Amino acid sequence: MAEQMPQTPLLDELEKGKWPSFVKEMKAAAKKSPMARDLLGQLEQSYKEKIGHWKHGGIVGVMGYGGGVIGRYSDLPEKFPGVSHFHTIRVNHPAGWFYKTDALRKICDLWEKHGSGLTNMHGSTGDIILLGTKTADLEPVFAELGALDFDLGGSGSAVRTPSCCVGKARCEWACYDTMRSCYDFTMAFQDEIHRPAFPYKFKFKFSGCPNDCVASIARADMSIIGTWRDAIQVDQAAVQEYAKGGLDIQNDVIGNCPAKCMKWDGKKLDIDNQYCRRCMHCINAMPKALAPGKDRGATVLIGSKAPIIEGALLSSVLIPFTKMEPPYADLKEIVTKIWDLWCEEGKNRERIGEFIQRVGMGNFLEAIGLEPQPEMVAHPRENPYVFYEEYFEEEGEGEKK
Amino acid sequence: MAKSVDEVAEAMFNLVKDAAGLKKLKAMDLNKSMVEMFGPEVDKQTCKDAIKKLINSGRCVYTYFGGSYIELPHREAAAND
After folding, report:
1. CB-based contact (8 Å) between B56 and chain A?
2. ipTM rounded to 2 decimals
3. pTM of the shown model
4. Which CATH code fits B5-80?
5. Integer Cα distance of A68 and A154 in angstroms
6. Among residues A268, A250, A246, which one has the least CA distance to residue A260?
7. What is the pLDDT of residues A61-109, one digit of tens each?
8. CA nearest to A54 within chain B
9. In B, which residues are within 8 Å of A135 by CB distance?
């Protein structure tokens, strides 16, 4: 392993400027960790050659689990022995990413003992990402994480570690308890997180309101996004205060309403709530004057994903409104039906959104026993998957006569 | 008569062993094969328990190559000493 800091003229360029730099962090870690030193050396070589020097290790893990460890080996192990093994460990984060500082110190101490000392806080899945350890250290890390009441997160063709926004812990817009839901689903589906049994990955993300701070509509196979059924709460006096304070309500609020369901006569704000699309724009613009309604719950959507095998997808509405109250039995039952269907009919590495595109939303809904709802239609004539079979049958019978 | 977890695990192990080097099998492939083999004598939970038994005993391991598979333990080609 490198005893001295490697020369890194190309990486040094990324330390310049006023912004935080991953090179600076790696160099700080390299003062203590030979693994981090060799990581810098290998990365500099990759920058010079414009080629990555990692091999994917597909078999490393801890006993009993099928996820939580992502194997990495260097393809230059003689030159950079410190990163000969450089496996990543995903640790299941607490709902809403709340930690006591003491817990973070213990995780960092553990990682300086068994790994490179480098982390991602947090990965795009949400987990704590511990970067770089050897195969021989995996079981000790797992045991010590367990002693700290942490567990590995999901990876591979499994339920990925569910994540949520800070919800009612810190946000006035939360329409349901995202953290409780996230924790509940994490506990309920432990087997599915740790033992990959699906065609491909499946992600739950819980957002408390349509602002969707965890971007569940774009990233989760099942997006649970807070919403409300009744009217937006309006404090007319506070609306007038915004107007007096210089907010151009007509242009900046009404003009940006996607449903054009609001009117402002200079004194009173009128909202035609039946046309409201729950986009949150007006509430975000006047947070002291407007608030989500009182009859709150969530919309459940399905099928979003980032582009990997095929292109990106956004989620589609599956359940227009549910109260999202424990024990979430109805939603869990639907989830189980979806998984049964997907495991039976899905292709290898086919996300649920791609599966729905292939079989058709109408067939999918029929197979899981859900009725089509008007809220599933984004625009008139855009979703041609709802067929009125009774209508065709009657017409057919008429022809026979 | 319903198949026991041990019987299903043994049948799954034989499938994995026969497929070694030829085809990587996923958990759902094993489950489908068990239903084909044993019909109504096997259910979803028994299949899950059988896979858990194979993994926990170390007779099989989970692997990841784009997706997750169940294979016999082996030294992978990418591994460094």
Report:
1. yes
2. 0.94
3. 0.93
4. 1.10.10.10
5. 5
6. A250
7. 999 999 999 999 999 999 999 999 999 999 999 999 999 999 999 999 9
8. B78
9. 79
